[in-house]
UniProtKB/TrEMBL annotation:
GO molecular function: galactokinase activity
PANTHER family cross-referenced by the UniProt entry: GALACTOKINASE-RELATED (PTHR10457:SF7), MEVALONATE KINASE/GALACTOKINASE (PTHR10457)
Protein name: Galactokinase
Catalytic activity: alpha-D-galactose + ATP = alpha-D-galactose 1-phosphate + ADP + H(+)
EC number(s) per entry: 2.7.1.6
Protein source organism: Sphaerisporangium rhizosphaerae
Superkingdom, natural source: Bacteria
Length: 380
C-alpha cells in the first residue's frame, strides 16, 4: 500500500493503523444541514487514507503524497508541527482534529502521519471531510477512545469550524464516517439520527453520473457564511429556532423580503424534497426521483443563488441529453453536478454536456460514474 511504503520511507518505522475515509456526493438536501434539516448523501469510492503511528511527545509529523505537486522524483519532507498554530493549508484539517480531540478533553499526544488521497481535486466531493475523518478514526482507534462514528464526525466538524474557520454543517463528515455500501444516508441534522436507505441503481438500469465542472469560484467560502447568516436572521425574524421549524411556508414568506425570503423558500422546500425522495426510494420508485433532483437545482440556482454558469449548463445539457434528472451537489459555486441516467443514455449525456462546454469555449468537464461506497474503514 502506497501510504505504508511512504510511511516507512519517511519515518523509518511501521504505521500502527491505516484508515480510509471516503468523500461524498449529496443526492439531495443542499444547504439544509445547518438549518437543522434533512440530507441524503452517500460515500464515493474515492477518499483519503491516513497511516498513523503515535509518538510519546506532542510533535505531529505530517506528510501528504499529494503535496509534492506530483513530482514523484522528489522525496517529500514531512512537515514538523510542534504547536497547533504552525499548521497551514491542508495541514490545518489534520492538525485541527488533534486540536478538537484535545479540546474535548482527550489525552491525545503527537503522531507521525502519512496522507494519501484520490478524491478528484476541486470536484467538490469533500476531500477535506475525508481527510479529517480518516485521521479522527485512526486516532480514536490508536488511543482506544471508544468514540462513536457520530462523535468523530462531530469532532471533525468542530476542527473545520473552529480550527480551519469554515462554518460547514455536519453533512460531509457524517457521510464520510457513517455511510454504508449500497445505501444513501438519511440524516436528521437536528436529532443527528441517521438511517441507511438502500439504493440499487444497477438493477433499475440506472447510474449516477458525476459531472466535474473543473471550476471553483473563489467567492465560495464567503458566500457560504453569508447564506448561513441569511438563514439565521430569517429564523430569528420568524421566531423559530431554525428554518427546519417553518411549518407554514406561505405565512413565513409573507413576513420576509429580499434575500431572506428566497433563502427560506429554498430551505423549507428542500427539506420536503429530501423526505419525498426518501419516500420514493422506500416505495421502490427510484426512476421517479429525477423530478426532485431538477427542482432542487432550480431552487439552488434561483432562490439560494449558489449555482454558477458551469453547473447550470451541465445540468441543462445532461437533461437535454436524456438524464432523468440532474442537480448541482455540495456547496455550489463550482465543483460537481450529478445526473441520474439510464445506462443506455450515459454516452449521449456525456456527449451533450461535453458539446455544451465546447460551444462556450470552456475546458472539458470530467465524468465519473458514482457507486455507493462504504464509509470510513480500517485498512491495516
Ligand atoms: C458544504 C458543507 F460543508 C456542508 O456542511 C453542506 O452545508 C453543503 O456545503 C451544502 O449542502 O459541503
Amino acid at each position: 500500500m502506497r501510504a505504508v511504503d511512504a510511511f516507512r520511507a519517511a519515518y523509518g518505522r511501521e504505521p500502527e493503523r491505516v484508515w480510509h475515509a471516503p468523500g461524498r456526493v449529496n443526492l439531495i438536501g443542499e444547504h439544509t444541514d445547518y438549518n437543522d434539516g434533512f440530507v441524503l448523501p452517500f460515500a464515493v469510492p474515492w477518499g483519503v487514507t491516513a497511516a498513523v503511528a503515535l509518538r510519546d511527545d506532542d510533535t505531529i509529523r505530517l506528510l501528504s503524497l499529494q503535496a509534492s505537486g506530483g513530482d514523484e522524483t522528489q522525496a517529500p519532507e514531512p512537515l514538523v508541527i510542534t504547536e497547533f498554530g504552525q499548521a497551514e493549508g491542508w495541514a490545518r484539517y489534520v492538525v485541527g482534529v488533534f486540536w478538537a480531540l484535545r479540546q474535548a478533553g482527550h489525552d491525545v499526544r503527537g503522531a507521525d502521519v502519512v496522507i494519501d488521497g484520490d478524491v478528484p481535486r476541486g470536484a467538490g466531493l469533500s476531500s477535506s471531510a475525508a481527510l479529517e475523518v480518516s485521521v479522527a478514526m485512526a486516532l480514536d482507534d490508536l488511543h482506544g477512545l471508544g468514540l462513536s462514528r457520530l462523535d468523530l464526525a462531530l469532532l471533525s466538524q468542530k476542527a473545520e469550524n473552529d480550527f480551519v474557520g469554515m462554518p460547514c454543517g455536519i453533512m460531509d463528515q457524517a457521510a464520510s464516517a457513517l455511510s454504508q455500501e449500497g445505501h444513501v444516508l438519511f440524516m436528521d441534522c437536528r436529532s443527528l439520527a441517521t438511517r441507511a436507505v438502500p439504493l440499487d441503481l444497477a438493477s433499475e438500469g440506472l447510474q449516477i453520473l458525476i459531472i466535474d465542472t473543473g471550476v471553483h469560484h473563489e467567492l465560495a467560502d464567503g458566500q457560504y457564511a453569508r447564506r448561513r447568516r441569511d438563514c439565521e436572521s430569517a429564523a430569528a425574524r420568524l421566531g423559530v429556532k431554525a428554518l427546519r421549524d417553518v411549518t407554514d411556508l406561505a405565512a413565513a414568506l409573507s413576513r420576509l423580503s429580499g434575500d431572506e425570503r428566497k433563502r427560506v423558500q429554498h430551505v423549507v422546500t428542500e427539506d420536503h424534497r429530501v423526505e419525498a425522495l426518501v419516500g420514493l426510494l422506500r416505495a421502490g420508485a427510484v426512476r421517479e426521483i429525477g423530478a426532485l433532483l431538477n427542482a432542487s437545482h432550480l431552487s439552488l440556482r434561483d432562490q439560494y443563488e449558489v449555482s454558477c454558469p458551469e453547473l447550470d449548463v451541465a445540468v441543462e445539457a445532461a437533461v437535454r441529453g436524456g438524464a432523468r434528472g440532474a442537480r448541482m451537489t455540495g456547496g455550489g459555486f463550482g465543483g460537481s453536478a450529478i445526473a441520474l441516467v439510464a445506462d443506455d443514455r450515459a454516452d449521449q449525456v456525456r456527449e451533450e454536456v461535453t458539446r455544451a462546454y465546447q460551444e462556450r469555449g470552456w475546458a472539458a468537464p470530467r465524468f465519473f460514474p458514482a457507486s455507493l461506497a462504504p464509509g470510513a474503514h480500517r485498512l491495516a
